[in-house]
Amino acid sequence: MTMDIASIMGTDRYLSWYQQMCDIRMFEDTVSELLSRNVIRGASHLSAGQEAVPVGVMAALQSDDLITSTHRGHGHCYARGVVPEGQGKDRQEHLNRMLAELCGKETGYCRGRGGSMHIADVDGGNLGATGIVGGNLPIAVGAALASQILHRDQVVVSFFGDGAVNEGVFHESLNLASIWRLPVVFVCENNQYAMSVPWTSASSVPNAADRAYSYNMPGLVVDGMDVEAVYDAARQAVDRARKGSGPSLIEAKTYRWYGHSRSDPRVYRTREEEAEWKRRDPLILFRGKLLDRGLTQDQLERTEEYARAAMDEAQSFALRESADPSPNDLLVDLYAPGVQDIGSSEHAAKQSATDPTCRQKAYWQAINEALREEMNRDATVVLLGEDIGAYGGAYGATRGLLDQFGAERVRDTPISEAAIAGAAVGAAMNGLRPVMEIMYVDFTPLAMDQLANQGAKNRYMFGGKTSVPMVVRTEGGAGRGIAAQHSQSLEALWTHFPGLYVVMPSTPFDAKGLLKSAIRDNNPVMFIEHKLLYGTTGPVPEMDYAIPLGVADVKRLGSDVTVLAYSRMVLQAIAAAEQVAGEDGISVEVVDLRTLKPLDRSAIRQSVEKTGRCVIVSEGYKTSGFSAELMAVVVEEAFYSLDRPIVRVTAQDVPVPVAEALEQAAIPQVSDIVEAIREVMA
To answer: Exposed e or buried b for every residue in 210-230, given b needs 16+ CB within 10 A?
Structure first.
């Protein structure tokens, strides 16, 4: 039974709730009108009719609690950002900046970069809305993980629609939150339709909340048109989470007055159905309760007028007083500022590495040492991934770290690539520096939404108000006879996305120094290790050194031809260079790119200008592979220095076969590089 909150909160709080619901309704009606006049561009998904849900939930939160939101998120953003006047954010300023964002103005919360579907008020506790159904669920899990590890008295609420309940990431997220007993509350706003598909046709259970029992958490069904019922359920769930008892799932049965978007003809629902729901309008229901409890008609009418006046002022601010963003700022805030503290210089470390007494380490040991040193250095560095604990990782790179740092900071996860990645994104946004491991690069497409649409884009979409300092450790490449789904080189996929760095070291020395820089960087980094490099050895100084991202390294000096390579292909290129030097007297310069993004274009230009010839070696596929990008860079940077056409040596456009003879034919061999060098020198 819904508790009587009047004795707890008093009339002022009641009136505040009504004011918030009126403000949200007026905001949505105003946006609808502006959309009809094409004043607001793009898609806006309105939540008129659902006002009781965000207002009731936010009333149960503390000032430092967090939310993640959805494409239908204006109400969430407004309710999370409003506090009593004089105690925080000004209500009018809040409405101004929200509407300005929808209108694409510089004064908007995201500087006009996020718009309706990606509105965020990070400083106000809203980690942002996502246009991907269910995309915010694992982010909330990660933010709650950070709260747990950092021992904050903080709860995270994740809002999502009924359509998200059928997404795999919903199930992965609830499972992960339950296993770790995280302080997160999942709120399903069941407005009866996932775009046009009714809930009754899309679900095998009567209620979304029924799914909770599969994940050992309470599932509460509430009347989403009744703000008091929503508050009561939210208060219970938030209290449970704050006490360390784990997550809950609340399903609020509600309805949206407008269509899915402005182009929605609403042919999938009847006028009778709409009229029946509108008789239970959350504003009308609450207005009646307030009159019964002693508020006057005049008080309520003045509250409604206050909402109209506030939206008039917000329109004036957004449409007449706010400037458009400058095209000169297009690239601003795409990446977080670079890292200053990188330990000893690479130059000093290289000098130490040339000492004959310098210790020799295997590639996997260099990775392990970098992780160990960074975890000792920074308590916010945590590891997430499959089999990284007692097992020590598929190739031993996390061996012994569980014993030293414990299960809180070295977390074995279920096989849930999307949830692992999303949790890393959310944890990074809330104070941690997660290093997540996906066992093979072939599996990273399972996490593509969380890495490419969320982690890589959040900083820019949200106007530079957040950072996502995280590392994705994975490994790729062929050579072990494990066939097409465990042997690919998919770096080209990840270099394609703005906001994400890609690192591929070839030596133990580079692996340690680059991983340390990646962990310290404030941007998401895809760190790809080649499976055939783990057993290779080389000098690794016993010092805290880091190699800056975006700096190539000339592994072998030469004057006749430049070979551009990375990862294991660097070793193949050096072997080929030694062969043609001895047999043909050709002087080959081997440039190890080390990081594909940011790419050291200057080093490429300088080497090609010196030699006048270029061979590009990559284990990725030839068609649309990274070798094509490198070819474009050489043409852009040093076209007039080329004496001969560029030659590419790449993997064949075929799934990697298991038979050894076929596998070797599918990927570049030393002999292929030798042939390419001789061709370009002909």
So the answer is: bbbeebebbbbbbbbbbbbbb
